[in-house]
Amino acid sequence: MDNNLLKKEALGVRRNIVSMVYSAQSGHPGGSLSCADILTYLYFEAMDINKDNINGIDRDRFVLSKGHASPALYGVLAQKGLLEEDIHGFRKLGSKLQGHPNMNYIAGVDMSTGSLGQGISTAVGMALANSLDNNGHRIYTLVGDGESEEGLVWEAMMAAGHYKLDNLTVIFDNNGLQIDGKVTDVMNPTPLDKKAEAFGFHVITIDGHDFDQIRNAINEAKNTKGCPTAIVCKTVKGKGVSFMENQASWHGVAPNEEQFNQAMSELEDK
Amino acid sequence: MAKETRLAYGEKLAELIVENPNIVVIDADLSGSTRTSLAKKVCPERHFNAGIAEANLMGMAAGMAASGKTVFASTFAIFAAGRAFEIIRNSICYPKLNVKVCATHAGLTVGEDGASHQAVEDIALMRSVPNMQVFVPSDQYETKAVIDYVTKVNGPCYVRLGRGKVDDVYDENFNKDITKVNVVKEGKDICLLATGLMVQEALKVAALLKEKNIEVTVADIACLKPIDEEGVLKLLNSHKKIYTLEEHSIIGGLYGAVAEIKAKTDIATPVIPIGIEDEFGESGQMMEVLAAYNLTADKIVDRIK
């Protein structure tokens, strides 16, 4: 897919994110915007997900381990025309768009997540079962850099390396910020690349907003045999909305009307 | 013949894994103790080790279930229901995935390892999570029937198994519905409603009381959730007093479940808990520890009036 088209879709995903969080007056815009380009690439190019196979598991699957970035996941499903629910129901009573995703409510949500560290652990189990069946389907999971302070992340990484799961790609959304501040100040999880390498991963470090780099890394992961691949994506929290960029304070806060209007105008498809 | 329920589990699993190509087993460095090693022996390609990492054991189990497998995940009860509680809650029960948490070494009868390894709260923990079904089989035959049953359930199940040998309550012709209260000895006035290895103690209590010309009912309840309310109410309505017997805290286990049922009704029948008071266990030989906590038949007899 042409990079300009991907950029267009990513803008749409970002508008969905901002709309959802604004409409709910609740949610996590910063970490959703930081991974919007990665999810756009996965759903529009890397994964073989479509309307016909969305309800089954006979395809590539994605686990949003940082489940609080649900607006990005719902946003990309909506942008691709795969989401039946109205995105404006997000976080509201009666909507299937739960604050953190439920796999039984939404087709295309491949695992219920939200409690940090657990998504990557389930992704390892999915990849292990896939490798037992030798079905060729790939498992992708997105882990936050703050999330990687959870011990379970490293139990899962150890198992992925141990079982040499080359059908698994772990993507770190390294936006550098968590609720209480910089990840390196709160509880330094870096260097993620060297840690992943030590756990038996092939590691690639890229700019998580550059589609050429994302494409090359995902393809390199697909072609890497005998071990799982970790892609450490340097990203900007709040990417695309000027006043949210690199601000930890926008982790879990909704914009007011004025901020919403400014954000939507910055995210216009010009 | 007395046998460990964990051994009966391992034997049954070794049969099922050969019959059913969809079954996978995952253990956490305890496959010799949990007896899943028996399944590994006959089907090593579908037996996995998570290492000493019980949180990841449950997460991986959830993932394998999400890939369509029927997953048996085993470790000691303290690590399954305790350490991995929140993974079981959020990654297995919330998405209602097909994982059978078969936890061994439950209760005081872990024995010598002591309180750190004696899970006396696991039933309460597992019973409180939506979508989870909870089973505590009493002997080898009931264990095999429970394992057979949970394999056919499409959803999360917790099966509580013990380390030590338990007497046979049933025989190889066991064909009772394990989801119901099963009366194993008919009596009158007093009923002993027991779960797990306490069924063997209840039968001993009944024999001791018979010497005093007191006939008591002994009922076995292996399925604590969803609980057979009708069966429990029937016992409450047909006896003057019910004693609940469990190798578990009296908070949130069998006593809790029966009390919850009773409290919704105007039935006056007293329900007396015989279990572990709100305290930790300690090291010792299995039956010595059970006796120290007043859970052996000779101690229980003194408490029944």
Topology (SSEs and partners):
The complex is a heterodimer of chains A (270) and B (305).
Chain A: H1 3-24, H2 29-34, H3 36-46, E1 61-64, H4 70-79, H5 118-133, E2 139-144, H6 151-162, E3 168-174, E4 177-178, E5 181-182, H7 183-186, H8 192-198, E6 202-207, H9 211-223, E7 229-234, H10 257-266
Parallel strand pairs in A: 1-2, 2-3, 3-7, 6-7
Antiparallel strand pairs in A: 4-5
Chain B: E1 3-4, H1 5-19, E2 23-27, H2 31-34, H3 37-42, E3 47-49, H4 54-66, E4 70-76, H5 77-83, H6 85-93, E5 99-104, H7 122-127, E6 133-135, H8 140-152, E7 157-160, E8 165-166, E9 181-185, E10 190-194, H9 198-211, E11 216-221, E12 223-225, H10 229-238, E13 241-249, H11 254-263, E14 271-276, H12 286-292, H13 297-303
Parallel strand pairs in B: 2-3, 2-4, 4-5, 5-7, 6-7, 10-11, 10-13, 13-14
Antiparallel strand pairs in B: 1-8, 6-12, 9-11
For the largest beta-sheet of chain B, the strand count, sense and barrel status come to: 7 strands, mixed
Mean pLDDT of chain A: 97
Proportion in β-strands of chain A: 5-15%
What CATH architecture label of chain A applies? 3-Layer(aba) Sandwich
**Helix proportion of residues of chain B, in percent?**
25-40%
- What's the level 1 CATH class of chain A? Alpha Beta
Q: Write down the overall geometry of chain A.
A: globular
What does the model show?
The complex is a heterodimer of chains A (270) and B (305). Chain A has 270 residues and is of the alpha/beta class. Chain A has one domain: Rossmann fold, CATH 3.40.50. In chain A, the strands form 2 sheets. A 5-stranded parallel β-sheet of chain A has the order 1-2-3-7-6, with helices on both faces. In chain A, strand 4 and strand 5 form a beta hairpin. In chain A, helix 1 packs antiparallel against helix 10 and helix 5 runs parallel beside helix 6. Chain A is globular, with a radius of gyration of 17 Å. Chain B folds into 2 domains: 164 residues, Thiamin diphosphate (ThDP)-binding fold, Pyr/PP domains (Rossmann fold, 3-Layer(aba) Sandwich); 123 residues, Rossmann fold, CATH 3.40.50.920. By secondary structure, chain B is α/β, with parallel strands linked by helices. In chain B, 40% of the residues lie in helices and 22% in strands. In chain B, helix 1 packs parallel to helix 8 and helix 9 crosses helix 13. In chain B, the strands form 3 sheets. In chain B, strands 3-2-4-5-7-6-12 form a 7-stranded mixed β-sheet, sandwiched between helices. Chain B has a 5-stranded mixed β-sheet with strand order 9-11-10-13-14, sandwiched between helices. The chains are: A alpha/beta (270), B alpha/beta (305).
